[in-house]
Amino acid sequence: MPIYTSHGYELSSQWALPAGTKLGPNHEGPSGGLHVQSGPVAWEEPFDTSEEQAVFSQDEHKLFWPILGKVSINPAGQVYIDAATHAPDGIIPHAILGPIIAHWIMMNGGIALHANCVDIGGKLIAIVGESGAGKSSLCAALVAGGALPHSDDIVSVDPHNARVPFGTARLKLNPDVFALLNLNALSVGPVYSGIDKLSVEMPLPPDLSAQPLSAVYRLLDAAADAEPEFVPVNGFLAAFTLFSEIFRVNTAAQAFGAEALLGRCAALVGRVKVFELRRHRDLSRIQNLAAAVMSHSRTFD
User: Fold this and answer.
1) Which residues contact 204 (CB under 8 A, 6 or more apart)?
2) pLDDT for residue 32
3) pLDDT (tens digit, 9 = 90+) per residue, 139-174?
4) Same domain membership, residue 259 and residue 135
């Protein structure tokens, strides 16, 4: 079974992961982190297959998504996926590098932001915002402009030192964004069957080590004629902004406690700069916006 390295963990998976995910040193054998395989997941609670569900105990966390099926994660790193018969082709690798590894990161005391992360001249920046805000589009434009991909969809942050391990060098893009940008992709295909979004696998960057996160930009809409505005967020508001961008924050708060997660985010304040990036959501301006972010990132240490 292949071993991969993602978000600072060895990850062995019965399912092949995208090309932008680093293979581990041995490429096969037992994993020292997460071990993902197919298997039955018992569910004793009343079960409604039309809604997401979660059940947590000291020995096991169980998650259910109607499009995927049941997932069991235990503290030893054993993950069992009991896939639904109608699960689309390709969705399991997508889930492993999304909600499954995000949950494991938080089980181990980290913060999993729903974000994209790139390296701009040695500085890691994360882009956050609500679904559809344009996180992936902006990061793709930054990569097209010379930034290096560091993580997609999930950004794992150590609350004690703000370091971010390398995740995966891929971008999930709408076809119009991919057509607009000149990206040096290794491969391009659907994220999973049945949706239009593309999984764009990029070459691995030369440095795959964990690095400190310099800044987080939260995307907010502005008027059509507005220039991009970078507004600093400090103190409790910065901690709450980070908390609100945790991957599937409601499920995470139920599993790990909202106060505990907010405390992890508060530990980052002072180590990581947080900004609101107010801009007009206009794809024709995405490269100009990327240039503005690159320029702004040079103004802080």
Assistant:
1) 20, 22, 169
2) 53
3) 999 999 999 999 999 999 999 999 999 999 999 999
4) yes
Q: Which helix (H) or strand (E) holds 95?
A: helix 91-95
pTM exceeds 0.70:
yes
Which of 106, 239, 111, 116 is CA-nearest to residue 163?
111
Enter the tokens of residue 261: 């997660």
- As a 3-state breakdown, the chain gives helix, strand, coil percent values, each rounded to 5, of 25, 35, 40
User: Who contacts 277 (Cβ-Cβ below 8 Å, separation ≥6)?
Assistant: 217, 218, 219, 220, 228, 229, 230, 231, 293
Could you give the angle at which helices 235-244 and 258-268 cross, rounded to 10 degrees?
120
β-strands 3-6, 22-23: how paired?
antiparallel
Among 58, 76, 109, the domain-final residue is 109
- Pick the closest to residue 74 from 113, 33, 114 (CA basis): 33
CB proximity list for 34: less than 8 A, separation 6 or greater: 9, 10, 11, 12, 77, 79, 100, 101, 104
Name, in order, each residue with C-beta under 8 angstroms of 22's C-beta and a sequence gap of 6 or more. 4, 5, 6, 166, 168, 204, 208
Q: Are 72 and 80 in contact (CB under 8 A)?
A: yes
253, 119: one domain: yes
Structure letter (DSSP) for residue 110: -
